[in-house]
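Reply to dn_fold:

You asked what the input looked like. This is it:
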Amino acid sequence: MSTSDPEPTAGSPPVKPLTLAATIAALGIVFGDIGTSPLYAFKECLRVKDADNNILGASQVVPILSLIIWSLIFVVMVKYVLLVMEANEDGEGGIMTLVSLASSKDKEKNKRKHRSVLVLLGVFGAALLYGDGVITPAISVVSALEGVKEANERLHGPLTAGFLKYFIPTAAVLILVGIFWLQKIGTGRVGMYFGPITMVWFIVIGGLGVLSLAMHHAVLGQILWAFNPLEGLHLLITHPGLGILILGAVFLSVTGAEALYADMGHFGQKPIRAAWCFIVFPALILNYLGQGAWALAHPSELLVPGFNPFFNMAPGWAQIPLVVIATLAAIIASQALIAGAFSITMQAIQLNYLPRMRINYTSDQESGQVYVPVINWLLMIGSIYLVLHYETSENLASAYGIAVSLTMLVTTILFGQYLRHKLRIPSAGAYALLTPFILLEVLFVMGNAHKVLPNGWLPLLIGVVVYYLMAVWNKGRIAMKKKMTEGEAAGDFENFLDSVEDRFVAGKLARVKGTAVYLAGSTKSVPMALAHNLKHNRALHDHIIVVSLKVDENRAIVPDAERVSFQTRGPKFCKVDSHEEFPSVLSVTGRFGFREKQNVFPVLEKAYLEMGITPNQMETTYFLSRETIVRATSGFSLNAVQEKLFEVLNRNSLSATAYFNLPPGRVVELGMQVEL
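and this is what came back:
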């Protein structure tokens, strides 16, 4: 991280009041994905084929609308907006936060297995979000650009089919490059720019729905029956096979729901809830009803390949402006999952599930607003590949949904455990309360399961690969930590210092001016860098500080009062013939929440005060250990594949010097081999 990165405020929960500016900014980040679902969701529902391989057309418009409306109410509003968003840690949401909250009270020895299962389940759900983060920008942008085809037909075809075939993917690729390039300015500023555009988008789609309902008022009585949940239930009961397939398409209307929770740390509960209740939900309902009215009024056009009720609702003169605003909205839609991926990555790094990467904190007030360059460019490459490979929104829709539906189900399971702790009720009682959500989401998974073999395997594969990487890294770090605390260097700290003192008194160790700072994984054992430095360099600094930075996996933010703790080790006044004193060793533990930047310098400042010294940065040296992984001859911690993969990840992880923003010219790295 560069020194110019703003420092997030830590030590107290962020204050995120409900303001119009915050609400509009949340629109630009949080609701972009679900806000653009009308571009393709209803269309894909009508393209579902029955047992005779016939397109449904207008025959099931009202039941489909009913399923969409009540999915939005039940899944998005009730589950996420009202319930799941209550499961937060100092305002931070997302599946990794939920894992922490759901398992925070399962640390007793007899419950460790239960906790491990919850953690692995949560990590798998988080990994699946990366697959969703790849496909969401692709389908949003392509769906918007396909409006050019509708506009071209309304304008009597000035553009050739050959031109459109290459124009749409080319334009989509260029737009995606721009989207991902823009991420470096930070989600807060992106939301500030995108929020007003998204506001216009919701006004437009809501207005289109009202216009369509007014123009097709003859079918208004039919359309309003969609608010009756029995319409959708009747379809599911009487035609279960067809109903499941339709639910797989209906699910496209709620795919952005997980982003509401993942992005909560960026803007807070109140702005997100206000935006949903007063802007997003009404606009979505009006638009879907308008599409349904158009479909009932034009049943024959539904059989035309490539039709889209969304664009056809607009009058001819509005086609081009609608395509422009839809494209802008699609650009913004990509933000929800991208920002969510950044938040998840930061938390996963803090919790030791991913290797260290460069994290840019893009706000000096909100610690949750981050930018992760590596993840950003990997998502960009994946999205561009999907656009070039699948080409159309219909093909992309066939790959969309299975990963995020599984993530939603995982979230519900973890939320059940959270309720168990929160309400102090048995697991059976907690899950009884969530049974309706579980049943619906199981149906969503079943409805999307048929997509796996054609195209849906790709986001699943991405999720599985990411999960495997996270599992191997976590297992490897645990094994490495265990190995590094074994042997001579892991002995009793006081005994080690006694032996060093004997060598010092005997004149076998030289005295060096300045302060030596040793970064260690734990203050309970002797840092390997300290042991190796004394062994090879035979030198003692005037002041020795051992610093260990700990991440509290159960808290997003650690209060300032609990930030730093000290322990003085060794004799303070050991005089030798030269009247020099044997330096005492100060062990310092800095504690951070899983959403906080691990900043070593405020911790060191308190250490200097504790020691009563004024440090000279030019006489301060930072000692780090640099591990090289080698294959153990016996007692393997990892199998051969895992060991090789962990070695590659460890070798390519960001150095501690860069991650903690230490001055490179004052850092000494001592290499050592670790057998796994």
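The first strand starts at residue 360 and ends at 361.
Hope that clears it up.
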